[in-house]
Specification:
This protein is mostly helical. The chain is 57% helix and 11% strand.
């Protein structure tokens, strides 16, 4: 048995706004916006920043020194991770 509810135009607007806000918040939690420090860079860019070869980048990835991320079929690194490693190696 279904019930029929009569809502005012304001109540309908409030329900729609609440639903949209809830959906947006849910999407934000599932797909957080990347901040500039979470920018992903290529292997070549990482090698340039660290002043090492691509072979060294591959070796360091295998040894766990670098943490590679796979985006589709491409390997990327967090720029912030590379910059931190670069600063550490200078000290």
């Amino acid at each position: 048995m279904s019930k029929l509810a009569l809502l005012s135009e304001i109540e309908i607007d409030n329900l729609i706004n609440l639903s949209i806000s809830s959906a947006i918040e849910h999407l934000k939690q599932e797909n957080p916006v990347e901040t500039p420090e979470d920018e992903f860079i290529t292997r070549r860019d990482a090698a340039d920043i660290l002043k090492v070869s691509l072979v060294t980048i591959s070796d360091w990835s295998k040894k766990g020194i670098l943490n590679p991320y796979q985006h589709n079929t491409r390997i990327r690194f967090k720029k912030s991770d590379i910059q931190t490693l670069s600063q550490t190696s200078k000290n």
